[in-house]
Amino acid sequence: MDFLFDYGLFLAKIATVVIAIISILVIVKSAGGRHGARKGSLEVNDLTEQYKDTIHHLESHLFDKPLLKAREKAEKKAEKEKNKARQNEIKTAAKAGEFSTTREPRLFVLDFHGSIDAKEVAGLREEISAILAVAAEGDEVLLRLETGGGMVHGYGLASSQLDRLKQAGIQLTIAVDKVAASGGYMMACVADQIISAPFAVVGSIGVIAQLPNFNKVLKNHDIEFEQITAGEFKRTLTMFGENTEKAREKFQSEIEETHGLFKDFIAEHRPSLDLEKVATGEHWFGKQAYALGLVDQIGTSDDYIMAACKEREVLQVRYVQRKKLAERLAGAGSEAADSLFLKWIGRGQRPIM
After folding, report:
1. Alpha helices, DSSP H only, in the chain?
2. Which of 26, 53, 100, 175 is disulfide-compatible with 301, CB 3.0–4.6 A?
3. Alpha carbon 195 to chain centroid distance?
4. Over pLDDT 70: what percentage of the chain?
């Protein structure tokens, strides 16, 4: 009897711990739900301050302390006078009943590292919406772009998001340090100017779709595949059925139509390009792309940002999505598997730019 009593007490303790853990999880989840439907938050980093801090840190090892102290004192005095003048300006305007919201122009820096389905457009949308809400005359956006392209609808939406800046009259500069090909170049051509590193990959104005066909393998193992559709071209090429010449011709015509839309889009934004020469699906390195008119300047995003930091405030804007617990635990292995599966499926019926 003592054994049963001790065993029952042990089970009761275990049950109590389990209930307590479940209760904590429920409370945490409920608290998270009360914060609203947003799955992320906006982060703003002052790149100008980071630039100045880097310089001061290095100079502390290069110059003697009396010189640095004297200069720091002069800088603080100048900053104090500037703030005082600004406060007097605000007070004068307030007494006159005028509240000026004018400010010095800023450079907003965004990053887009695109995957094949361009899922990063969700964050880009939030970043651009935030900038449009506070943008003032003279502001500029620099997008550091890195992608080899992907699904047409995803990169079409990403390009439309960038066009929102143009429609609002905000200067848009896109810097390509590594690659902006295919759908990536579709995004880049929206910009007022494109900066490319000398060996960055640019271009690849073409469309591709590919998929394996296992029909012969299935037949060899006496496996039948059935596919029921309504509409003659609801499904053209298939991975498991027997593809017909008519289906191939239809799919080829769809690829050609998509390529035509791609070229029309680029012609609209960069009318000086010789599309017959550059819309062949080839890619070029930065200097070659500059000679062809695909980009406007050779350089890196670092050079552009450093130059801007000397003249105005530079702010990096990034929308960070909160991941669910299950997504965090899944790790890189799951993401790699998802990416591979997406490529396999996406390159079937959906064209890739």
Report:
1. 2-34, 47-59, 65-95, 121-134, 152-167, 183-188, 215-220, 245-269, 275-278, 286-292, 301-309, 325-346
2. 175
3. 17
4. 75
pLDDT for position 229: 80
The answer to whether 65 is a known catalytic residue is no
Taking CB atoms within 8 Å and a gap of at least 24, the contacts of 88-97 are none
6-10-16-20 Cα dihedral, nearest 10 degrees? 150
Quick check: helix, strand or coil at residue 328? helix
Choose among 287, 290, 249: nearest CA to 273.
290
> Per the structure block, which two tokens stand in for 104?
């010095």
Beta-bridge partner residues of 176: 145, 196
170 DSSP assignment: -
Exactly one of 30, 65, 234, 272 is catalytic; name it.
234
Cα–Cα distance, 142 to 137 (Å, whole number): 16
Alpha carbons 220 and 211: distance in angstroms, whole number: 20
**DSSP classification of residue 192:** S
Would you state the pLDDT for residue 36? 47
Q: Exactly one of 159, 182, 204, 301 is catalytic; which is it?
A: 182
- Residues 127-148: what's their mean pLDDT? 96
Examine the pLDDT at 35 and tell me if it is beyond 50. no
> How high is the pLDDT of residue 73?
74
Mean pLDDT of 263-282: 94
What mean pLDDT do residues 37-55 have?
86
Euclidean distance between CA atoms 92 and 19, whole angstroms: 63
Q: What is the mean pLDDT of the chain?
A: 83
182 tagged catalytic:
yes
